[in-house]
Amino acid sequence: MRALRAAAVLTVLAVAGVLTAAPASAHAEWLGSDPEEGSVLTELPAAVVMTYSEEIAPDFVDTAVVPPGGEPIPTVGTADGVDVVVDLAGAADVVAVADQAGEWQLVARVVSADGHPVEHTTTFEVEPAVAAAPTPAAEPTPAPATSGPPSVEPAASAAPLASAEPSPISSDPVADVADGLPGWAVPLVVLALLGAGVAAVVVHLRRGSPEA
Fold first, then answer.
1. DSSP string, the chain
2. How many Å apart are CA 52 and CA 120, to the nearest integer?
3. Residues of the chain with pLDDT under 50
4. Distance between CA atoms of residues 64 and 62, nearest Å
């Protein structure tokens, strides 16, 4: 009897030693995401990939996204080995608020292949890029106001040319000469002309008389 009891005790101790020496079973852990947690994005990504340390059971994936100041919106998460792909572009309710700026949260509840549940919340910022304001075009300077249409001064007409008509020939040379002289010189001119006429008559008579 004592021998049997001793053998039983040794067996229990051996089993306990084996169990104590066995390493503790490890569970799946969240390792990271794409985009990375805490990222600042200019727009909401079409999908988010969450990576774990062990494979995830495809039938036990539950995901939701929380917009800034909003309520959780259910999304579709697909397990692919150690990755879980969360589709954001395919959720109409998410697309409707995709332009909201601020902190977004992605909540994922999954179960690893060994049956251990894992829950994690990933956060990232969405800050749309601000477009530069267009430079205002320079306004044209208005023309000064006028009370009426601008007056156009007619060009000065050229003075008419004097007609080049020949002066009539006077039949009275004495009168022509007298017209250009002062009044006191007219008698002198008349006497000079008479003297010249008398002298011409005397000369003519002398040439016509016979020589003695």
1. -HHHHHHHHHHHHHHHHHHHHSPPPP---EEEEESPTT-EESS--SEEEEEESS-EEEEEEEEEEE-TTS--EEEEEEEETTEEEEESTT-HHHHTTTT--EEEEEEEEEEETTS-EEEEEEEEEE-PPPPPPPPPPPPPPPPPP-SSSPP-PPPPPPPPPPP-PPPPPPS-HHHHHHHTS-GGGHHHHHHHHHHHHHHHHHHHHHHHSPP-
2. 10
3. 1-25, 161-162, 164, 169, 212
4. 7
Residues in contact with 105: Cβ distance below 8 Å, sequence separation at least 6, in sequence order: 65, 66, 121, 122, 123
Structure confidence at residue 142 (pLDDT): 67
The pLDDT score that the predictor gives to residue 140 is 67
Q: What is the pTM of this model?
A: 0.51
